[in-house]
Each structure stands twice: as structure tokens, then as C-alpha cells.
Fold this sequence. Notes:
25% strand; eight-stranded mixed beta sheet; elongated; 11 helices; Aspartate_kinase_CS; single chain; Carbamate kinase; VC0802-like; alpha/beta
Amino acid sequence: MGLIVAKFGGTSIGNGKRIRKAAQSVVNEYMDGKKVVVVVSAINKTTDELVAIADESIGKEVTEKQLAEILSLGERTSIRVFSSVLESLGVKSEYIDPSHELWPVITDDNYGKAQIDFERTEEQAQGLLSLLEQGIIPVVCGFLGRTENGEVTTLGRGGSDVTAFLLGHCLKADNVIIVTDVDGVMSTDPRKIDEAEKLDYISVEEMRDLATHGAQVLHPHALRFKDPEIKAKIISFEKGDLSDPGTEIVGPFEDSMGKKVCLHHEPISVVAVVGEDLLNQIGLLAKMTSLVADANINIYGISAGQNSITLFLDKEEADDAYHLLHDLVIAEDNLSSISLGRDIAMLTMINPDFIETPGVITEITNPLKENHINIVEISSSQTAIVLFINWEDGKAAYDLIKEVL
Length: 405
């Protein structure tokens, strides 16, 4: 028959007509023989409004526990409305909030950004299957959790996406469908570029990085629970059709938490070009990288400063790049010299939690400092940190970083 977990975002249930359209799309799948678990966010801007009310009325005196209870009212309202609409359309439904005996998402007591107890949640989620076997459609609050003591917690922004993929994982669903206000994942923001096109497919890794860098269609943490056997897609609420192809999210993470530490297997060499006022030389970097690219030489990293630009290249190809770039130094008045440096090790750390982990670079670099390992260069994005260090220190640095991540 197939089991679907369908998550409806706040915009997709932003008013009565949209809620009815969303409910009808669920009923259509139900009548087609599917089992459906519904996850809903708070209606439209409800959470923001509740935050503003709490801030204005209570201010800094509000506790995390109190705020979690207040914010939970958004999702608690939307599940009751959605479940009632389903029943008005002729199917059985039951809303599931943290007070319900079948509530599935069990967490610690970090009320504002709770950590999920995966073992207990997987165990508790099985209770939803009993409802499905009776032909009942469960409508579950997204974003919320519950402690073992029955206290309400919240999963942080994007928590409804997490709930949907988490339940999909626990229930071994066939499909997780994220219903939002766009047709799927676009090549760019269609509000900024009219020629933006919808993607038919996107990998989990690409979707995670896109979401981490600001795309609002899906929260990156949710993809931790994307199983390889479970299909997943992002569709628009406009069509009112859960079978719409939208954009399919393909594949799982390489490991369950999306974390990885890698030591590049061969030495990296440093080629540094020196000159004056380099940051204001329009097109200089393009000239350098084009020369290297035309020779089919890969660049692993670039460091740009006011008086130098450094390229990190494979050692076996660095000498060729060195000679090519020397010709550019001779030809450009603003460049004065070029050097070919020592062997360098490249360590890459990937973790979707980096963006929300204050002090993560200090956590990584302190063990290196304590063991007198010098960092030649460091670069970072929202999900990755790359360290370039002396080659002879590479393995020791790798072992130290593996201990702290």
C-alpha cells in the first residue's frame, strides 16, 4: 500500500482555503490506498507572532520552559484544525500533540533546542502504526518534542522538517513529502532571477549545502534522517497534489550524522605570488586560475591578501603551475615575485552542525596548539573547515581532530 509522511509548512496552510486544499490532497492519497502520516507547522506567521507577544509581555524574564509551552500553541492549533478538516472530508483522523499517549518525539530537557533521544523516539513512534492500521490518519505537531517527564520542548527553527524525516525514518516510510510554497528546488531564487529553473533531482549533500547557505525550502538538519530506501521530494502546495514530482532528493548522507574528517592522501604544495595592492587588481585572480585550469591543474584552495595570493595545488603539478605563473609575474607590472613552498597536508572537516556551533574553530585548533602543530592556512564555510598544515604534522593533526569532532 505504501506509507507517506507529508509535512505541510506554515505557508501551505496559511489560511482556511489552503488548509482544505492540503487536507484534500491527503485524502486523495488515502483513497488511493496509501497510509499517510501528516506533520504540520504552525499556521503562517503564528510562531513569529507568539515570540513577539512573549517578548513584549514577559521580556527577558521568560524561561526556556515557558517559551517552549507558548510556542507549542502554534502547532497545537494547526493539528486540531487540520485533523478536523480531514474528518469533514469523510476520513478518520486523530491529532497527536505532546500530551497524547502516542506522542513520538522524545527529547532531552533543552527546551529551546532539544536533542532527540533516537532510541526512545523510534520505539514510541511505532504507536502511530496502530492508528494507520485502523484507517486513521495521524496529524502530528512538527517542531515539538517531549521529555520523559512529559514537558514540552522545541527542536529549533526548521524543526518540522526534522520531525517529518525523523518519523519517515522511524516508520520506514516509502516517501517523505515536504509541501512548501515553491515548485521544488530552483537553480536560484526565482524572485531575483526570472530565468530560474526547477531541478528534477538534487543530492542530499547538495541540498544540505544549499539549505545551509540560505535556501529556505528545507532545514539542513532534517537530512540526517534521510534513509537510502526512502524517497523524498519537495513540492508546492499550489497544485494540491502529493503525487506532483517536484524535486526529488536523492541518496543518504555517507554516515548517519553527516560528519567527516579527511586527510588528503598526497602532499599539497604552495605557490605564492607577491605584489602590491593585489586585492584591487581587477581580473588578476581570473588570470591566475585560468592559466592553471588551461594546464588541467586542480586548485584545492586559494588565500588572497593585500600583497599576496597563494594557491594550494597537488605537489606533482605544482612545478608546472609555478612556471606558468612566473610568466604572468613577469608580464604584470603590479606583480613582483613568485615562490614555490614546502609540502603541506590538507585536512578537511565536514559537519552540518558547524554553522550553529559557536567556538568550533577554537575547539579544533586548540589541540593543535597544545601539541605545537602550526597552521599554515585555514578556510571555512558554513559546513566545512579546511586546514593546511606542515606535511610531517598531518597524521598527528588528523588523530587529534578526530578525537574532538
